[in-house]
């Protein structure tokens, strides 16, 4: 080891030659700039340099002199090393001083390391832990160039997901899972509202599962990402102690259609009172069956949905303007544009206050519409339709397989000169497979296909091969009066199909609104919160087959988790 000190230069050369010849650590002499003010040296001024080979080695092989070492050139201490040594000294000062035997052993050990770099000694009895840990990895967004949702909103949502997932998995896995989930929700959502709705469902589900696991006394293993996506009842144990008893969900999954029919019929079939309260079409006379009655809800009581056939006055369901329609061929009516908001007028939290806003343009009340229609449309219909209803056929003599069938259905509506009309019927079986999907040519003149919600083009509707009577006939080939029909707000579908049916399961009744009737939860909200599936966010409109499948899944989910 070589120690640098600062002295006068008179004896520097001689001492240097003597130290080299004796293979001793040499003392490098630096010239003194000011003899009156000698330079004070400190431990921090000590550095390590290589030993110079002896002068008498000229012409001799280096291998003959084992004391000669080829050490790298001078390296000064880095800032990080200084910081580490400073922390070690600070930690050592807080610990009790080592005993004399420990000091002696340390000195003896250090005497055997001459010629090597100095390494700060750390007592084995009290290891020093660095207080400076690496900062946690910050999650980054996938496809940050997407303009569907602002980057700031996405990053905030991603951070929330990571915070929730990190309770069940390592942070690296939580970040990867949150990134995948956030990007998947972004791609499936067409609007910012749908994106935020799906995110809130995931966060709510995660917190519910966390609370359930905290309250459980069993030492269950950590939750996996797959269990998180399965729903709130994933991972629950079955009732009883018999290991051969399968979980209820597994049993339901193995049901045949007949077994599933019995289970659903006993639990969820709506009563006559429920049918009437929810506005289902019912016969006025069960024997004649020539006229139906439909009870209007409290929300629709202020709207006149059914008018006399001779009354030409109508109210636009979009802009709420009054207008007249043609009753006779010689009637003269004025055509005017319809300026309206296609979104719903809901309350939104803005700066800690709930303010009503339109979901389409985020504008407040009294603001002019954001969309323009060529003409007014209405949901009002004449009372003549009460005579147009039919009922599914009765059971055939002997065995009728339709009596144990289960179907889910959904319809898409368009606007005509006679009001709203059914333009598409989609039906799926108990496995979710599509069994009927027909475009219907509506009665009256087609005014608007309502493409934003129906997804139907004008050419599709006008070129349809079947009218309503033809679709009813096709539908009755699949069902009879005993068949179970499943849907969301199924009364509107049955009214548009002009069908009376009592064996129905309505998911809007099965999963009621927190405020109670007449309020109902939207199907897309039920899907995102319970099934963790995002629907009705496609820019091409709703898919009636998908809506029917979601209604079926909701009923099966209810049955599996009871």
Written account of the structure:
It is globular and about 105 Å long. The chain folds into 4 domains: 3-113, no CATH class; 151-230, no CATH class; 257-293 and 384-560, Nucleotidyltransferase, domain 5; 306-382, no CATH class. Residues 1-10, 19-25, 106-112, 125-135 and 235-245 have low confidence and may be disordered. The protein has 17 helices and 20 strands. It has helices at residues 12-21, 79-94, 100-110, 151-165, 171-188, 192-215, 225-230, 248-253, 257-268, 272-277, 451-454, 458-462, 468-476, 490-497, 507-510, 523-531, 544-560; strands at residues 3-6, 27-30, 282-283, 292-293, 306-307, 313-315, 322-324, 338-340, 345-350, 353-358, 371-373, 381-382, 390-391, 406-416, 419-428, 434-439, 446-448, 484-487, 499-500, 504-506. The strands form 8 sheets. Strands 14, 15, 16, 17, 18 and 20 form a 6-stranded mixed beta sheet that branches. By secondary structure, it is an alpha/beta fold. Helix 4 (151-165) packs across helix 5 (171-188), helix 4 (151-165) runs parallel beside helix 6 and helix 6 packs parallel to helix 16. Residues 1-13, 89-106 have a biased composition (Low complexity). Residues 34-43 have a biased composition (Basic and acidic residues). Residues 405-562 form the Exonuclease domain.
Would you spell out the secondary-structure blueprint of this structure?
Blueprint: E1 3-6, H1 12-21, E2 27-30, H2 79-94, H3 100-110, H4 151-165, H5 171-188, H6 192-215, H7 225-230, H8 248-253, H9 257-268, H10 272-277, E3 282-283, E4 292-293, E5 306-307, E6 313-315, E7 322-324, E8 338-340, E9 345-350, E10 353-358, E11 371-373, E12 381-382, E13 390-391, E14 406-416, E15 419-428, E16 434-439, E17 446-448, H11 451-454, H12 458-462, H13 468-476, E18 484-487, H14 490-497, E19 499-500, E20 504-506, H15 507-510, H16 523-531, H17 544-560
Parallel strand pairs: 1-2, 5-12, 13-19, 14-18, 18-20
Antiparallel strand pairs: 3-4, 6-7, 8-11, 9-10, 14-15, 14-17, 15-16
Helix pairs in contact: 4-5, 4-6, 6-16, 16-17
């Amino acid at each position: 080891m070589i120690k640098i000190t600062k002295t006068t230069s008179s004896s520097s050369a001689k001492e240097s030659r003597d130290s080299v010849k004796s293979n001793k650590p040499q003392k490098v002499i630096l010239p003194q700039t000011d003899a009156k003010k000698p330079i004070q040296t400190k431990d921090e001024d000590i550095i390590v340099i290589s030993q110079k080979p002896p002068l008498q080695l000229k012409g001799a092989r280096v291998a003959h002199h084992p004391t000669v070492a080829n050490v790298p050139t001078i390296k000064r201490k880095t800032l990080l090393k200084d910081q580490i040594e400073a922390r070690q000294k600070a930690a050592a000062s807080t610990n009790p001083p080592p005993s004399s035997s420990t000091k002696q052993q340390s000195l003896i050990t250090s005497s055997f390391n001459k010629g090597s770099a100095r390494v700060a000694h750390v007592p084995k009895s009290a290891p020093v832990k660095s207080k400076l840990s690496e900062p946690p990895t910050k999650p980054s967004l996938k496809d940050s160039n997407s303009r569907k949702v602002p980057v700031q909103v996405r990053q905030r949502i991603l951070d929330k997901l990571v915070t929730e997932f990190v309770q069940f998995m390592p942070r690296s896995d939580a970040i990867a899972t949150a990134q995948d989930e956030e990007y998947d929700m972004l791609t499936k959502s067409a609007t910012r509202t749908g994106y935020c709705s799906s995110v809130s469902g995931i966060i709510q589900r995660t917190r519910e599962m966390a609370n359930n696991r905290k309250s459980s006394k069993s030492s269950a293993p950590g939750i996996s990402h797959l269990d998180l996506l399965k729903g709130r009842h994933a991972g629950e144990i079955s009732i009883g102690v018999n290991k051969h008893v399968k979980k209820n969900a597994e049993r339901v999954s193995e049901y045949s259609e007949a077994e599933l029919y019995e289970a659903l019929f006993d639990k969820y079939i709506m009563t006559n009172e429920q049918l009437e309260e929810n506005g289902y079409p019912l016969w006025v006379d069960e024997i004649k069956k020539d006229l139906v009655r439909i009870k209007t809800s409290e929300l629709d009581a202020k709207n006149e949905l059914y008018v006399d056939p001779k009354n030409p006055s109508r109210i636009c369901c979009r802009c709420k303007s009054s207008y007249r329609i043609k009753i006779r061929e010689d009637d003269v009516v004025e055509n005017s544009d319809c300026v309206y908001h296609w979104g719903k007028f809901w309350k939104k939290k803005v700066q800690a206050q709930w303010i009503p806003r339109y979901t389409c343009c985020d504008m407040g009340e009294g603001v002019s519409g954001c969309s323009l229609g060529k003409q007014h449309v209405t949901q009002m219909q004449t009372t003549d339709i009460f005579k147009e209803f039919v009922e599914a056929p009765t059971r055939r003599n002997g065995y009728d397989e339709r009596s144990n069938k289960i179907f889910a259905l959904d319809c898409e509506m368009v606007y005509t000169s006679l009001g709203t009309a059914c333009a598409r019927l989609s039906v799926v079986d108990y496995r979710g497979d599509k069994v009927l999907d027909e475009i219907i040519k509506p009665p009256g003149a087609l005014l608007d296909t309502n493409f934003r919600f129906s997804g139907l083009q004008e050419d599709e509707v006008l070129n349809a091969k079947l009218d309503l009577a033809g679709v009813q006939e096709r539908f009755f080939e699949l069902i009879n009066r005993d068949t179970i029909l499943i849907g969301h707000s199924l009364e509107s579908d049955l009214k548009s199909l002009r069908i009376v049916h009592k064996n129905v399961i309505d998911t809007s009744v099965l999963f009621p609104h927190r405020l109670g009737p007449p309020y109902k939860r939207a199907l897309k909200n039920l899907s995102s919160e319970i099934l963790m599936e995002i629907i009705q966010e496609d820019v091409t409109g709703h898919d009636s087959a998908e809506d029917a499948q979601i209604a079926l899944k909701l009923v099966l989910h209810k049955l599996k988790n009871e």
